[in-house]
Amino acid sequence: MNTTTAAATKANVTVATIRGWARNGVITATKVAGRWVIDTASLAHRIAIGARRLARKAKNVVLTVANIKAIGGNEWIRGSYHRVYLNDWTEFAGIEVSRYNTGNISSASIGGRGIANGRAHDLLGTVSKVYFDATDGHLYVEHHGARAYEIRYLDGDRDTLNLVARISVGVRTAIAAL
Fold this sequence. Notes:
Blueprint: H1 4-11, H2 15-24, E1 29-32, E2 35-38, H3 40-58, H4 65-70, E3 74-78, E4 81-85, H5 89-93, E5 95-99, E6 105-110, E7 113-115, H6 117-126, E8 127-133, E9 138-143, E10 148-152, E11 158-162, H7 163-176
Helix pairs in contact: 1-2, 3-7
């Protein structure tokens, strides 16, 4: 359960928007002692709907060296190669990982839903490079293994995750938001 302030921060909207969603039934919420208490699962579902809408807008984004650098890319030029590397590709895939001081994974989630630490470790090891090639204008995701992975969330749900597509959509969404 979330307060309106916490929900607004999580959804990247105003508190007034959260209150409006609660009043209109867009998200599941109840009033306790005059304050809205927001259902976490309902809020996550609404955030996912907004992300899908933004992703549709992002499909028309033109990739350039400038906008890839603006979202955190590192430009590299050597001979005939001109690339912009995205080293923090997990951010664009919606993968969040917390680590112990030893470097081991302490918790992991995809799109806000928890996954097993071992599965997160496997996913992080599948992608070796993400870069924009300025010579041909394409985004490349170098990976090992299949494009689609079976994910079991900690709540027991299963889903198929297309890591390459998630990265591509995440990059385009980030650029559309500039």
